[in-house]
Amino acid sequence: MMRFIRSAFVIARRDFSATVLSKTFLFFLLGPLFPLLLGGAFGSIGARVASRTERPVVAVVMPPEDSARIAAARNRLAGAIGDEALVTLVYYDPERDLAGQQKHLLASGGPPVRAVLTGRLGSPHLAGDIRADDPTARQLDLILRDAVSPAAPAPPLNVSPAAAASGSLAKDRALTGQIGQVALFFLTLMLSTMVLSQLIEEKSNKIIEVIAAAIPIDAMFVGKLFAMLAASVLGLVVWIGAGAFLIQLISRGGVQTLAVPAVGWPGFLSLAILYFGMNYLLLGAVFMTIGAQASTAREVQTMSMPVTFGQVLIFGFASTAIGSANSPEALAAAIFPLSSPMVMLARAAEQPGWWPHAAALLWQGLWVTLILKLGARLFRKTVLKSGPRPKRRWFGRRAGAPG
Amino acid sequence: MLRQAQHQGIAVEATDLVKDFGETRAVDGVSLEVPAGSIYGLLGPNGAGKTTTLRILLGIIDPSSGTRRVLGHEHPLDAAAEVGYLPEERGLYPAMHARDAIAFVGALRGLPLREGRRRADQLLKEHNLGDWARKPIRTLSKGMAQTVQLLGTIIHKPRLIVLDEPFAGLDAINQGRLEELIRREAREGATIIFSTHVIAHAERLCERIAIIAKGKVAFEGRVDEARGRLRPIVRLRTRADDGPWRAAIPQSARREGDEYVFELPEGGPEPLLKALIDGGAGIETLAIERPGLHDAFVAIAGDSAAAAMATGEAVG
């Protein structure tokens, strides 16, 4: 056992150094941050542009006293539902040529007026690119009603905030679980292609013969997987730190706005790390086994698409557990080894209790061992051999064999 | 100091090894014994089954049937710390520094990395590569990279060194250096097995050989024994063209220029000489030559295998 661990460590140390000390690792670390930064930058610019261009503007062409009552009514409504949700109103005094003024306002574009409200409070008229059942028209209707006869002030509503209500807590915890699942999925998705090509270097350099003659193939697989895991955990620390910083910057209340998971934050984060490890090891072991059969980088590239689809399917299966941790589908997804870590992470957010996690981690560990054993065996059988490969069997007979 | 020498014992033993790849039998009942501390050659043309035999002995692949025993272990990987292996297809990590590449191979065999680096620096200096110790493998010439890999094979002072076609791709100077290194390792007590399709290397280095052809061992034993399978060759030049002495020359004799070339008859040189002198041959020159390993190989493995050895082609 000690020899196995020592052998795996030699491979892991070489792979980890080769990965982390290469210049390309910087790009690996920065890679996930680019979309976030670009998304953030373009998102906020886009949101600002959208808010400017998409909020409807209605020109109010009425006598000043009517306009003032409309403005007051709008302010009252804005106090209740927020200014950003309300139609923007711009006020104009009526000109002699009202029809011409209306036509000019609709055509001018500065501001981009969608409709023009004319007449008096008692007989308003709205003209423009708008229908009677349009939300903007409805808002205007509400504002006009209030402007005509302001509602009597209601008694102040006394609010007593509670830490959590069962209805909202379940929903919020499901959201926390879903965020955990998505994060787990994307992290392993990014690593899958790297794991697929893990053995290409050894195979193309022919150093595989030296390694295979010195240590068990299982140890090489384990070493490679753990090296990649260590490198990705390093990346994870950078990404989580940067992500938390961004959330803290962008969101009011930051990470504290997420619901406290059922097992508590320390427990959830510890389980998240363990399940990330298991998810990576499980999928990594499968992908390394598949990738080990490839002899060139081109073959690995060809394999990466079906592998990605496979991961998406597994993620879809795992997501059935969100909000219904004890449903038959969720239990099946928790038992199926490849979806188990994602399902159990969501469970940690939604359901208290530790023993299911202990059982799940053991179960997943068992499958990692089994897959690695199988992968190593397959590798020895199909890759580490000289001479021709066995001919394919067709209908139970070897092709070309005498009948 | 000798490396825990086992000169009295057998370092590697294989019994009836068979390896099938689908319908192709690559190794067909190979049995051999490699005495500890000896230099042992596996001779045969490409495709004869030498590499597959070595890979089975090293535990890279398992035999379809048969048994092997390496340094007393039934599973070769159990002896990995005491074995060094240079594969036919050389390979190193191109970005690794030369000393790290050597130390890495040592670490695979259980040598601590720090000690591996120390020994690597020393070995590189001994082989005039000291200035290249901290240069990436990709910057080394092919010959230098091969030397680095060879040094990786011996860095942990193995008791058994397995070299698959070690002379392939080396120039004459480096071939000479490698021969010297093999002799030195053997002097220090290591057992060395190497495969080759160049008979001259085996003839110069080996005490024992196995001739492999079409997956089978055609001969296994001492080099002298292989040569001993052939009778000495007589080269005779006479002044007389004809006479009673001609009766002493075997029917199978051939002419090479002015010379008669034939195997020494059963009775030995004395009756032959007497018959020639009495028959009035007028002996100008008479040489009795010991047959070379090449002649023995031709006699044992056949002409086609010998031709394949010479051209480096695979035998069918």
Structure, described:
The complex is a heterodimer of chains A (403) and B (316). With 403 residues, chain A is α/β, with parallel strands linked by helices. Chain A folds into two domains: 56-148, D-Maltodextrin-Binding Protein, domain 2, CATH 3.40.190; 169-385, no CATH class. Chain A contains 15 helices and six strands. Chain A has helices at 2-20, 24-30, 33-54, 64-81, 98-108, 135-148, 166-196, 200-205, 208-214, 217-250, 265-292, 297-319, 328-335, 340-350, 355-382, and strands at residues 57-61, 88-92, 113-119, 124-128, 393-394, 397-398. A four-stranded mixed β-sheet of chain A has the order 2-1-3-4, sandwiched between helices. A two-stranded antiparallel sheet of chain A has the order 5-6. In chain A, strand 1 (57-61), helix 4 and strand 2 (88-92) form a beta-alpha-beta unit. With 316 residues, chain B is of the alpha/beta class. Chain B has two domains: 10-227, P-loop containing nucleotide triphosphate hydrolases (Rossmann fold); 231-289, no CATH class. Chain B has helices at residues 50-58, 98-108, 113-126, 142-154, 172-187, 199-205, 223-228, 269-278, 293-301, 303-311; strands at residues 10-21, 24-35, 39-43, 65-70, 83-86, 160-164, 191-196, 208-213, 216-222, 233-238, 254-256, 259-263, 283-289. A six-stranded mixed β-sheet of chain B has the order 5-6-7-3-8-9, with helices on both faces. In chain B, strands 11-12-10-13 form a four-stranded antiparallel β-sheet, covered by helices on one side. In chain B, strands 2-1-4 form a three-stranded antiparallel β-sheet, covered by helices on one side. In chain B, helix 5 links the parallel strand 6 and strand 7 (191-196). In chain B, helix 2 runs parallel beside helix 4 (142-154) and helix 9 packs across helix 10. The longest helix of chain B has 16 residues, at 172-187. Chain B is elongated, with a radius of gyration of 24 Å. The chains are: A alpha/beta (403), B alpha/beta (316). The interface between A and B is large, with 34 and 37 residues.
